[in-house]
Structures
1.
Amino acid sequence: MVVALPANTVEEDPDDWGPCISTAEWRLMYLRGLTINQISLHCRVPKERVRQVIRHFERTQPDLACKRLILHNRPAPPTAADLWRKPPRPSWDCWLIRAREFRHQHGRMPRILSDDPGERGLATWVAGQRKQLRRGKMSGARQELIRAALGDWVGIPRPVSESSQWDRRLAEVADVLARKGHPPRYGKQNERTENTLATWLVTQRALLRRRGLDPDRRMRLDEQIPGWDCQ
């Protein structure tokens, strides 16, 4: 949209403007981050004259002149993408260093039930490493690094009570299969023991789907309960 000039007026040419000789404005421009060359160009004054004024300003008012760096070098405010961007996740080596320092400082491994969120995070990482080792997904190089940093705690055998209970459940399921010709089934008319065994078998299938079932245990299930994973 073009605004018409009032009658009897002539549009002013910027080339007709005279130089800006206000040193106060020069100092203000300098504080706002403009360089001496830019001030000289915009104000149409000799560059050497601007330099003399700015250098005198820096000598006589150093506290005020230093604010130019603060204003000019101030980092840009975070954008919406910066606010939503998640911080980078620590690398595997960083987690290992943290776990080693924690064990050296406290004389024990981190606990998942700790009140400290940092310790809970370490305990979750440790549990993940044990799971990868049991699934056979951990490289030999990482196994050596963990063993060197934390000893032989990774890959420790399952507790005797847990192993013996799993073995007992497998034997009971095999017994039901031998007596009834089919694995335990859940039903209201069934005995409580058979319902318990049926639930245990469903849990093993769920572990298999999530790839959380120990390979040795799967092999034993395949041998003693044929077709257990197809139901």
Note: The longest helix spans residues 160-180.
2.
Amino acid sequence: MSLASGHPKAAGASGIVLECRDGAKPCRSRWIVDSVPRPMETSLYLPVKAFLEQAGYTVKGEIGGCDIVGLSDQDPPVVVICELKLSFNLELILQAVDRAAVADEVWIAARISAKGKGRESDKRYRDLCRRLGIGMLGVADNGEISVIVGSVTPMPRTNPKRRSRLMREHQKRRGDPVVGGSTRVPQMTAYRQQALGCAVALASGPLKVRDIRAHVPDAGKILQGNVYGWFERLDRGVYQLTPAGQEALSRWRPSEADPALTPCA
């Protein structure tokens, strides 16, 4: 029965609404969440980021499909990857195993069950992480981080090309514009940042590539490739913005492209 039809309904704790028949007890078969907001993986990002930064890593979100990537200041840098989920499950371990091909340390992080019934309380789950060399981080509701299992076993780096791509994207991306755990939204990659830098420079009118290259080193390659359809070639080495480029500037804040760039008048 639809709630919109005017039939009585009974509200339980935490805003959960049960559909009812006229004069009958609440139905068991259908539950409708009325006012309880569903937590998101992105809510775990800042506490975990702060934890890794305190350990000395430069941390950024959503790099190469990984929720969190941290690089140390060493040469070569130590690569740490952390995957986020709202609760510990098998999928989280499978993701961590995949990341082990490119990372020196792999962590998984999830919310700690308030009732103590989560996988973090399962000795078998903890032992599996320990055998695989995967660290477990528990995130409390107040953002406090607890180390459930330490990541102590060196992870075998079996995919050096993928590891290099991951490190290159981390190092070229300016700032940390994407919250780890974000899904179904366009990612602010290093390439998109440079493309937006070109768009910002062209906002006031056509320019030569050499005039843009001072702010965007890869301007020539980006303008010629025109992956997003933002640019139009007017003459040899001269480009202007397309309507799609204008729309991109209105959608993305210039600061997300490069904090040093400002929109042209």
Note: Confidence is low (pLDDT under 50) at residues 1-24, 26-36, 259-265.
3.
Amino acid sequence: MAEERHFETPNGDSHLNEWETGFAEEVAGELEDELRRVTAAYSDQGPVPEWESFTVSPAVSMEMTRIPLPIRREEQIPKVRRVIAHCRQIAIPAALAVLKDADREIPVFSPKESVRNLLAEFEEMMRLAESEVAALENSLLGEDEFNAELAASESAQELALTEVLAAEAVHSELESEAQSLLAAALPVNLSLLGAGAGFKNILPALTQANARLAGALFKTGPLSRQAMGLLPSIQRRVISGLNAAKSSSIRLTPNLANRMFAAQSAKVLAMPAIIGKALVRNQAVRNGTMPECPRRRQHSKNLW
């Protein structure tokens, strides 16, 4: 019997998509037609996306010893589905929280229109970012999140560190603690994606946007706190998108950084395929690299 996969492939193979099954009618996306149009290039349906054939550099794709990161599938799927349903409801409010006090030109009376405009503005950059980040994460952690293997490389260790910091933030009891942990992941992701000197002037803006998103998720409730495990994935997509902008001779400014962070936040929080993989990988890395902690185990039970 063929090995069961957890996401339906773009070419229509009958692979089970764990995150979509049973949820099509239960949760409605908040971003309407524009989000579906803009994100079609990197959704888990439709034509084969560009990143399926993305060529990873030899330094990343070479044969390496890999550390298994086992995780219990039957425990994770119901939990992650609940987070997915919740995230699709808070995608727009979370994006607007990133822009709060950062871009006063955003019309607060039309939040959906504001987010749709952001997605349209950064469509090409976000497509390129998704290609790069998906290829990077698959090369360092494997394509199957339930059978993840951490590559024995410096890049893989850096990626694992960001995931551990996010997992710790999920279990933080103070908002400031969660924000600090997620802020520490930002420079690691900048290094991982080769962000150059051009990011020096926008690092404060990225840090503030990261803190606003973390704070909004922390305050909203237990399921939103679980979504803080997505922050490393969001950070990587923001950095990659800004790298794409820089390559197109677009000047990196604090305003651009804030808007990109908001757009990527809305996109990730509205995409079940990205949420499912990211959260399972986050927990797998945490379980596989850090010792068990009774306090954290009890806190996790309280969250759910």
Note: The longest strand covers residues 66-70.
4.
Amino acid sequence: MGVLSAIGELHVRPFQSLLSAADTLLRSESLLDDLGRIGDVARPVVIQGGLATDAYMYEPLADLLRSRGFQDVTATTLDFHGFGSFQKDAQNLSTLVAEASERSKLAGGDGLVTVLAHSKGGLTARWYLQKLGGVEHVDQLITLGTPHNGSAPYGTRLTALGGMFPGMTSLRQLSASSREVHLLNRDLPGFMNRARLQRPEFRMVSIAGDIDLPMLRETDGMVSNGSSRLDPSIEGLVNLVFKGHGAHHGAIAGQYGVHEATLRSATILASGGPLEQAMTGAAILSGGA
């Protein structure tokens, strides 16, 4: 087993029993039951995972969406358990989105796809949109616990550690001082202006959790609310923060554990629902679509 595979296994193995429990909870017919089959006429959804994850860890989230009527939901398979570069993951995402777009057209749809991204996956998705022309196929990006401004926990120590292993590119890229984070944020105003000219309803929504515990307030236990914040002065960018002891990094995406408020918001947004409905229960709202 290679170094990266071993690290990935060490990360995910302790959560396998929790994933099983989360899967059971998310399959429950009562979760978000009041939304009915809100996704019956929704566009396809592609779920982009984060660091030290893989597609199977997002099956509970995919199953929840399917239970709410979503017909076409796909989770990406990640190279090196998500330790690969933004660029490589963005290429893989591009392929899946193109396939989903084609399925939409064959079914009589408009070919547009919603990308629902967790953690590092949000930066991967932004690289795809901002650098690879993905906006042609994507109607909106919804991120959950994404360090849009770089992740402090992946700062100098882990950046140095990442430099020791050639394949752990994403650890370096996640740093707040990385070239990739700088480029994405520097170019975001121009990108959003062009995207909204092409499609006025295009939006990016950052959903964050705040577990509201001593020493961990204004974080989801891994990513700070400040890091997850998109620039609210840019039209089409929205930030939602949901507080609660269960609003931790895994639960806000149904990865392990369940945080109903964030899952409800993401489901409403993915269905094409209005922001006003999706923001119910949010402690902080900034920006506007």
Note: The longest strand covers residues 203-210.
